[in-house]
Design goal:
Number of strands: 11
Radius of gyration: 27 Å
Number of helices: 7
Bound molecules: zinc ion
CATH class of the largest domain: Mainly Beta
CATH architecture of the largest domain: Distorted Sandwich
Number of domains: 2
Structural class: alpha+beta
Order of helices and strands: HHEEEEEEEEEEEHHHHH
CATH superfamily of the largest domain: Glucose Permease (Domain IIA)
Distance between the termini: 26 Å
Shape: elongated
Largest sheet: 7 strands, antiparallel
Length: 329
């Protein structure tokens, strides 16, 4: 019995070790390029006209401002400071005072509105009619926040955040600005982690290779390709690898626990693996680490097996086998 338990432990440990090797592969460990085309925004002098022309598919997400001539933070494809990890900007930054309203660049569906680390408050709008999504970072959660749901071109999405709430803090304030990104595909087409993550702002690979587009170029083009924007295919491993890995690890751990409980006849622990896996699946789904309920199905199955064994009459009565002790005597 002990050797079975030890084998189960070893199996789980081997799987965990394989995961530690596999995760970096799945989250993108490609060598970053030496250079990447950097661009400055175009058409800012026409921002007012583009914003008010309702025949155009897109508008700038901000109202025109005399500040448009200023440079700030980083433009599309711009490289980070020398000495930092090699990263490229996947969006355009527009400097404006805190409290400046931010608008949807086109009709669509808000698929995410919430806190997101260095973004402060982040809003993402899917535009399925163009096969595109737009990303608006550094908004103000203290002023007002948009719920998920449909929006029209020009709908208010939020306001730029103050330096201490826009991804910065009291200790390290961040100058108010809008981080505005456009990407081919829909948010759900991309994973939550790694270079291809849907909320990426700075990445190690060239943004355009991952489907990011130069926002001002898209807006000033005044038209959309007939078939919409074509998104690159991240591949199965990038898209689903982490999900499969997490599901396998939790499933193996839960199954191992159930096997141990069965072999040790710890009836009180028979329900524990299923409950733990269901809890883990619920938390991971809520945090969008997982996108499918596969782990809940595994947890439910383990729970059902544990419950069946719990209520089933014991096949073997505890104590010495028939004839065991008596025969020895
Ligand atoms: Zn930015």
């Amino acid at each position: 019995m002990e050797s079975d338990v030890r084998r189960a432990h070893l199996g789980v440990r081997k799987l965990l070790r394989a995961c530690l090797v596999g995760v970096p592969l799945l989250t993108g460990c490609t060598q970053p390029p030496e250079s990447c085309p950097g661009t400055t925004p175009i058409g800012l002098d026409r921002m007012a006209a583009i914003t008010t022309d309702h025949d155009l598919p897109f508008r700038f997400p901000l109202d025109a401002s005399r500040l448009d001539d200023g440079t700030y933070h980083a433009w599309f494809g711009e490289r980070s400071e020398p000495g930092e990890d090699r990263r490229y900007h996947a969006a355009e930054d527009f400097s404006r005072p805190a409290g400046t309203p931010v608008y949807a660049t086109a009709d669509g569906e808000v698929s995410y509105s919430g806190r997101a680390g260095g973004y402060g408050w982040l809003v993402i709008v899917d535009h399925p009619q163009f096969n595109l999504y737009s990303l608006y970072g550094h908004l103000s959660p203290s002023r007002w926040s948009r719920d998920v749901g449909p929006v029209s071109k020009g709908s208010l999405l939020g306001y730029l955040g103050d330096p201490w709430e826009n991804g910065g803090s009291r200790e390290r304030p961040l100058d108010p600005h809008l981080h505005f990104g456009l990407r081919a595909g829909q948010r759900a087409d991309y994973p939550k982690r790694g270079e291809w993550r849907w909320m990426a702002g700075w990445i190690r690979l060239c943004p355009q290779d991952l489907g990011w587009l130069q926002p001002s170029r898209v807006i000033t083009a005044g038209a959309v390709p007939d078939e919409g924007y074509s998104a690159p295919d991240p591949g199965f491993l990038v898209r689903w690898g982490l999900e499969v890995l997490i599901t396998l690890v939790y499933s193996a751990a839960g199954t191992g626990l159930l096997v141990i409980a069965l072999r040790r006849k710890k009836r009180v622990f028979l329900l524990l693996p299923g409950i733990l896996i269901i809890l883990a699946g619920t938390v991971l789904l809520a945090s969008e680490m997982l996108r499918t309920p596969a782990l809940l199905v595994v947890g439910g199955t383990l729970l059902a097996i544990g419950a069946c064994r719990l209520v089933a009459p014991s096949a073997q009565p505890e104590g010495p086998p028939p004839g065991g002790t008596q025969a020895a005597v």
